[in-house]
From TrEMBL:
InterPro entries: CIS_tube_prot_N, LysM, LysM_dom_sf. Pfam families: CIS_tube, LysM. This is LysM peptidoglycan-binding domain-containing protein. Residues 183-230 form the LysM domain. Transmembrane segments: none annotated.
Length: 239
């Protein structure tokens, strides 16, 4: 069985995840923290704080992998290398794309850092999403530590301690707590259940909710002009 790599899918326009950043080495631990309750004079009361995920990512470019796995993945993800390297590579080429996720990128016109989806397992695909989403949020904090250098002072080994904070657009939060304002919509040319779920729920992987509500035998075939019921999201204890 082929090794599946943790991938960070990055939002480049609002709720459109069109960029992927694969990690160099899979982490051995992911920690998710969620506070659901707090104490008060009246006992325990709900505490609706966002969840956070912390992960340490390791990078080492002091020598290429024997099968050039790291180089080939990097080349596919960034298109900065034309041939696998046989010498040490500046590790910042790998770390900066992740490090920069903590900043607001004016080019994307989001007014905030981009949303990230941490995907691991299956075959992640931006258009027809079928990977395993471990977490969705913004990169709240990143600590970059360089631990090894060449004789010339070029960093070739590093760790990134990343903290992702759960976040959703206000309208997506509204859909989770209230019924859909207008649950009926007309199917347009080019729409799929995945694209409709992305627009309505902010997550294309939730297309099955719409398929089940409409008793669709073949969810891949939608008739343009027909009516579709979009139900509110069910209550969730966490995802």
């Amino acid at each position: 069985m082929a090794l599946e790599r943790l991938t960070i899918q990055v939002e480049e326009s609002r709720n459109k995840f069109s960029k992927e950043i694969p990690v160099l080495y899979n982490p051995n631990k992911l920690t998710i923290v969620k506070s659901g309750w707090k104490a008060s004079a009246n006992g325990l009361v709900p505490k609706d704080d966002p969840a956070s995920l912390t992960v340490e990512l390791f990078f080492d470019t002091s020598a290429p992998d024997k099968d050039n796995t790291a180089s080939s993945i990097f080349q596919k993800a960034t298109d900065l290398l034309t041939t696998p390297s046989t010498q040490a590579i500046d590790v910042r080429i790998y770390t900066l794309p992740i490090y920069n996720l903590s900043f607001i990128n004016a080019r994307f016109n989001l007014g905030r850092p981009p949303l990230c989806r941490l995907v691991w397992g299956g075959k992640p695909n931006i258009r027809h999403f079928n990977g395993s989403v471990l977490f969705k949020g913004v990169l709240q904090q990143v600590i970059q530590t360089f631990t090894h250098f060449t004789a010339e002072g070029m960093p070739v080994r590093a760790t990134l301690n990343c903290t992702f904070l759960e976040w959703e657009e206000p309208e997506q939060q509204q859909k989770k707590t209230n019924p859909v304002d207008d649950p009926i919509r007309i199917i347009k040319q080019g729409e799929t259940l995945s694209s409709i779920a992305q627009e309505e729920y902010g997550d294309s992987s939730l297309w099955r909710i719409i398929a089940n509500a409409n008793r669709l035998n073949n969810p891949r075939t939608l008739e343009v002009g027909s009516f579709l019921t979009v139900p509110p999201l069910p209550s969730q204890g966490g995802r």
